[in-house]
Amino acid sequence: MSFLNHPGLCFLRANAPCEILEYPSNDDFEAALADPPEILGISFYINESEIALDMAARARRAGVREIWAGNYGAYSPAITSSFDRVFAGWGEREAAEALGAAPRSPVELRHPEMYGAIGTNIFPGMLLSGLLFTSRGCPWTCSFCQTPDFYGKPAQIPLETVDEVLWTYRRRGIVGINILDENFGTFTSHSLEVVELLHRYKMRWIALTRVDTLLKNFDCWASKGLFGAHLGIESLNQTC
C-alpha cells in the first residue's frame, strides 16, 4: 500500500485556512523558503524526527517566525522544545483557531479526495484507490497503543461528506476504496450506512478493523463489496 496524498494534511487544507506541501523534495522545501511564510507547520512520524528538526532549523534561518509540529513525531516530549506550538491528533479545529479563523463544527467537517495504491498477495496488479475515513480515534484502550490518548475521544465523520467524496471518487472512475479508520465498524449504525453507500456506488473496498469486528460483520460486508481487510497483530514482547 502506498499513499499518493497525505491524509492528515489533506484534511487540514480542506478544513483550515492553510496551504500544504505533500511529501516535498529538498528542492520543493528550499523553494518554499525563498519567500518564507510567517508560520510553518511540519507533520512527521517519530522515525522522521531528525528530518523535521533539520527542516525547522533551516526554516528559522530563512526567517520563518513560528514553527509548529504535528503527527505522532510531535508527540515526543524530547523534541517539543524545538517547536513553538505542538498539535496532537487531527488538528483542523485547533489550527483554524490558531490562525484566527472560526473552526468548523464536527458536523461541518469536509472530507477531501485522497488517493493511494493497494494490492494483495493474490492479486499481482496495483489498484488505484480512494482513501476514506468514516470515523476518527478509537474507544479501545490497548496497553501498547497511544492512539486513544493521541486522538482523543472517538467521533464519526459526517455521513454527508462521506457521501460527497464517494460520489467524487466514482465520478473520476475510482472503483476501489481503502478505509483507514482506526477500527472500521466501531460505530455500528454509522458504518452500516457507509457500507450501504459503498454498495450503492458499486465500490469494492478494504478496511482497517479488528478481527472480532470483522468476524461479526463479515457476511454483510462481503455481500456489499468488501474484498479485504487490514489487520494488525501487535505485542510488547521484543522476542516476537
Task: Please give a quick description of this structure.
The chain is built from eight helices and eleven strands. The protein has 240 residues and is an alpha/beta fold.
Which labels suit this protein?
single chain; 240 residues; alpha/beta; Rossmann fold; Transcription Regulator spoIIAA; 2 domains; six-stranded mixed sheet; three-stranded parallel sheet; 20% strand
Extract low-pLDDT stretches.
none
The beta-strand count equals 11
Which architecture of the largest domain does the CATH hierarchy give at level 2? 2-Layer Sandwich
Structural class: alpha/beta
What integer is the average pLDDT? 91
Q: Please tally the helical runs, counting DSSP H or I stretches of 4 or more residues.
A: 8
State the distance separating the first and last CA atoms: 24 Å
The rough form would be described as: globular
SSE order, as H and E? EHHEHEEHEEEHEHEHEHE
Describe this structure in words.
It is a single chain. The protein has 240 residues and is an alpha/beta fold. It folds into two domains: 104 residues, 3-Layer(aba) Sandwich (Rossmann fold); 120 residues, Transcription Regulator spoIIAA (2-Layer Sandwich), CATH 3.30.750.210. Helix content is 35%, strand content 20%. It is built from eight helices and eleven strands. α1 crosses α4 and α6 runs parallel beside α7. The protein is globular, with a radius of gyration of 19 Å.
Break the fold down into its secondary structure elements and pairings:
Blueprint: E1 2-3, H1 7-15, H2 26-34, E2 39-43, H3 49-62, E3 66-70, E4 85-86, H4 92-98, E5 115-120, E6 123-132, E7 135-136, H5 147-151, E8 155-156, H6 159-171, E9 176-179, H7 188-200, E10 204-208, H8 211-223, E11 226-230
Parallel strand pairs: 2-3, 3-4, 6-9, 9-10, 10-11
Antiparallel strand pairs: 1-5, 5-6, 7-8
Helix pairs in contact: 1-4, 6-7
